[in-house]
Amino acid sequence: MSAVSAPSRHAVLSLYANMLRTSRSFASYNFRTYFVRNTRVKFRAAATETDPQRIQSFYDQMTNELAVLKRSAVVNRLFEGPKLVVEKPRVTVGGGGAGMEAATGGAGQPI
Length: 111
Prior knowledge:
Elements (H helix, E strand, L loop, with lengths): L8 H16 L4 H18 L5 H27 L21 H4 L8
Helix pairs in contact: 1-2, 1-3
C-alpha cells in the first residue's frame, strides 16, 4: 500500500476560497446563501481531520463539487429571476423632527 500525500494547506484553503467565490456568484438569493453556508459547514467539519487519505478523499470530492457548482452558477445566472424583498436595500429616513416625516403621518409613512 503506497503512502498517500494529503494536499497542502494552501491547496485546501484555495479550494475553500474558490468554492465560496463560486457560491457567491449565484444570482438567486436562496441558492447563494445555501451554498455559502453549506461550503462553510463542510470545510469546518473537515478542518480537524489529520488522516492523509481522508483529507485527499475530501479534497477530491470538493474539487468535483466545485466543478458542478460552477456549472450550476452559470445556469442560475442565465435564468435569473426578479430580486427578492430581502435583497432590496432598505430606504432609511431621518426621523423624529417636525419635517417631512411628521407631515405625512410619522416615520415617512403616508396618512
